[in-house]
Design goal:
By secondary structure, the chain is of the alpha+beta class. The protein has helices at residues 22-32, 88-97; strands at residues 9-18, 36-43, 49-55, 62-66, 80-85, 101-102, 116-120, 126-131.
């Protein structure tokens, strides 16, 4: 077991749930479970996509209610764990150096969307590392 990589991951940033109807899911998570909306923004080409995150009041880890795009995320009904990091580029390089299956490059969508990349564990589970900075 290799333990040379020292990543900048600070915490589980979010759990990503692919959903078909973000508004219905917001009604459930906010209206029925009492979570609060942390993020609700458009992004992507022509702001065609929407990113929504909810969390318990005061909680650090969020639940992202994300529409499953045609590529890049697991199929509907499968959870994804998002790890928060202070240095996405260093973590990408470290994992690549360790032989971990990672995206070729860090995704940079611009605007309010932080840089991020996917990696896969030995059993094929996919994780997302997202650069986040506490304000």
């Amino acid at each position: 077991m290799t333990t040379d990589a020292k990543l900048s991951v600070t915490h589980v940033g979010n759990v990503i749930i692919p959903v078909d109807d973000q508004d219905a899911m917001l009604d459930f998570y906010v209206g029925k479970l009492g979570l609060e909306v942390r993020t609700d923004m458009s992004f992507g080409e022509d702001d065609a996509m929407r990113w929504v995150e909810v969390a318990p009041p005061g909680g650090r880890t969020t639940i992202a209610l994300a529409p499953p795009p045609e590529s890049g995320m697991p199929e509907h009904g499968k959870l994804t764990i998002g790890l928060a990091t202070d240095d996405v580029d260093a973590d990408h390089a470290a994992l690549k150096e360790q032989g971990v299956e990672v995206d070729d490059e860090v995704m940079r969508m611009g605007g309010p969307v932080p840089p991020m990349f996917w990696f896969t564990d030995p059993e094929g589970n996919r994780f997302l590392i997202v650069e986040r900075h506490d304000d």
